[in-house]
Amino acid sequence: MLNETNPIVTKKPKDKIAEIPRIALGGFHIANGYLYKRIKDKSQQICRAIWIEETKYNTDTKEIDVVVCFAYRDRVEKKQVSRDILMDNKLQTLTKYGADIPKLSVPYIVNFLTLTEEASKESQEHIRLGWNEERDGYYHNEYLSLNMEYQSKYKGDFKLVSDGTKQTFLSAVEQHISGRTPLEFMLACGFSAVVNGYISKHVKQDTLIVHLAGESSTGKTTAAVTAIAPFGKPDTDGLMKTWNSTMNALLKEFADNHGVPLVLDESSSKEGESFTTVLYQLAEGKERSRLTKEAEKRQVATWNTTVIATGEHKLTEKSAKNNGLVVRVLEFESIKWTESAEHSQKIKEAFSTHYGTLFGEYVQHILQHYTPEALYHKLEKAAKTMHDNFKVQDKFSERISMKYGVILLAAQLFNDCFTLQLNTKEMIEFMVKNDLCQVGKRTMDQKALSVIEQFILKNRHHFEVDGTKVNHTDFYGKVTYKKDHTEVIIIKKVLDDELKKCGFASTEVVMSELKSSNYLNAEAGKNTRKRSVPTGEDEKTPQNVYVLRLSKTFKLDLTKSLPNLNHNTAGTMGNYPFGKLPTTPLKKISEPLEINPLFLRSNVEVDPNFPPRKLLNRLENNPENDSFYDEFFDGSPEEEL
Q1: How far is CA 237 from CA 153, 241, 242, 264, 491, in A?
Q2: How far is the C-alpha of 150 from the C-alpha of 142, rounded, in Å?
Q3: Among 200-209, 321-330, 332-341, the least confident range
């Protein structure tokens, strides 16, 4: 009864038979909501009821957790904690959750909990995702295998639960995705994680990185949602993460993932930062070696999956200008992924309540029909299909065709597995056209030439051009027009500083590439020549300079405003300004290439030195001619422009 001197009335918790078991072990027993110990033929109350209901073995960390239950007020609380809670000095930490742990009773309670642990049921958990080492099982919210004898539940940070059914998910795909090639492509990108992780047992595979670049309102995030929805919740508490974290925290999201796709949304949130290191590590699929506090080598986490990234800018533009990155990242720029804002909203609404229901049947299909080696042979065929369809090929085409091939194979397996079909023919054309938009920009010499030409244009007043003079304090170099090319002399330090500022890790490597492509006129064994440059009034001193051979059309760029090229210009072929350059045979095509309207070019800066559309069509329709040079100089360059 309440009164001023005793405002709180305490009462014993009710003995809810359905929640509090009646346990009698080793002289202990639970009754009336309390734990008792028999001491000298008398039952002594120890604390409120507490016991271990279940033990959980983590198959990845080999650690054991216990589920501790305890009475608090008139209810039962449950807490999963590490088994080291059974140490005397740690048990009292449970008091913050409501457990009754008197200090003098700790030894008795530990004794009783140990007894109930031995009598409790045991289950298994995992934190890894995707394929196991043997490739005979797949970890997701549960463990999938053909015999289903092994049971395990996911214990990790991603929300992998499902919502809806396979039928409702496929209905949403048929209504909102089917017939839209870019979105069908993204659906295949999601399933490529399963394929990539599976064949990595047979041959080392990079993690596949697909980046969607472009302005907002083009449906990039919706496209990314389409890729991961078959596997889990397509939201930030599910399989969608952001770039806004440290590199170590970011890479930790991928640890021990061998087959579940993830999204990294909005790379623009890391404004001003280089993506070079994180892209290399993501693709490599392995974290750096580290030591424990005891100076022992820590186990290195690995992964092999598919990463779908989005952002306003290309990742390769915000990274070091290394050739290694262009073969590790498939970039899709300025593509209209959805038909409208309304279409995008309908897709997001559909996949907010239908997700995580399609991957299981896909995994079972692979387990039933393919070994990793057999599936790799199918990948080789898919990669060859992509390679044979490339309009233009360079030294990277073979490696890149393997990456596109993984996506194509994923789509083919989807069609084998489900009645709903993806249009692989249109998907091949979509990927081929995207490669054509990248092929002329991915070699280091072409990237460097673009930077150098823009640097000269921007700093026109620092160069002597066609007889004009520049004050020695402002002198960067000299431009001279030759019969078949434009010669540009640039002081070595000036150009080295500019290339480093633009992300080129090694100017020596860049210049060696330019030299091997015959763009650089240098002394034997060097990348420079000695030329006299102004160092004072009427004074000249020999200095190391770069002597570059640029296109003879570069004269137009220096004497006119930039050409107003049509926005449909493919912008893919680069510059091939004079003879003796390595030539690349063109694959024969049946009809002139038309730029896919899905590839938007509005508000996209076009390099003025790329050959115009007219020239590209002529190149593509004359595949018997193996030389870009012959096509480029058939007639006047001015007429082409």
Answers
A1: 18, 8, 11, 13, 53
A2: 10
A3: 321-330
For 346, the 3-state DSSP assignment is helix
Which of 358, 410, 356, 359 is closest to 382 using CA atoms?
Answer: 410
DSSP H helical ranges for 574-636: 613-620, 628-632
In angstroms, what is the C-alpha Rg of the chain?
A: 33
**Which residue carries 């061998």 as its tokens?**
258
d(Cα 164, Cα 227) in Å, to the nearest integer? 17
What the block records as the tokens of 233 is 């919740």
**Residues in the chain, overall count:** 641
Give the whole-angstrom CA distance, residue 394 versus residue 582. 10
Give the other-Cβ count within 10 Å of 537's Cβ.
7
Give the integer Cα–Cα distance in Å for 486 and 468.
Answer: 16
Instruction: Specify burial of residue 454 (Cβ count, 10 A radius: 0-12, 13-18, 19+).
Output: middle
Q: Which tokens is 522 given?
A: 């240098």
Cβ neighbours, 10 Å, residue 527? 19
pLDDT for res 641: 29
**Could you give the CA distance from residue 50 to residue 109 in angstroms, rounded to a whole number?**
8
pLDDT in tens, 402-422: 999 999 999 999 999 999 999
C-alpha dihedral (554, 556, 560, 565), degrees to nearest 10 = -90
Residues with Cβ < 8 Å from 208, sequence gap 6 or more?
A: 189, 192, 193, 196, 305, 306, 307, 330, 403, 406, 407
| C-beta of residue 554 within 8 angstroms of C-beta of residue 600 | no
Phi and psi at residue 612, in whole multiples of 5°? -75, 170
What is the helix (H) or strand (E) element at residue 537, kind and residue range? Answer: none
State mean pLDDT over 478-504. Answer: 87
The answer to whether 636 and 551 are in contact (CB under 8 A) is no
State the average pLDDT for the chain.
Answer: 82
* Residue 242 three-state SS: strand
CB 351 within 8 A of CB 239: no
pLDDT the model gives residue 504: 74
Q: In the structure encoding, which two tokens stand for residue 527, read together?
A: 């990348």
pLDDT digits (tens, 9 = 90+) for 132-143: 999 999 999 999
At 106, the pLDDT band (50, 70, 90 cuts) reads very high
- The distance from CA 336 to its chain's CA centroid, rounded to whole angstroms, is 20
Sheet containing strand 75-82, edge to edge, reads 75-82, 64-72, 50-58, 121-126, 153-154
pLDDT tens-digit profile of 222-231?
A: 999 999 999 9
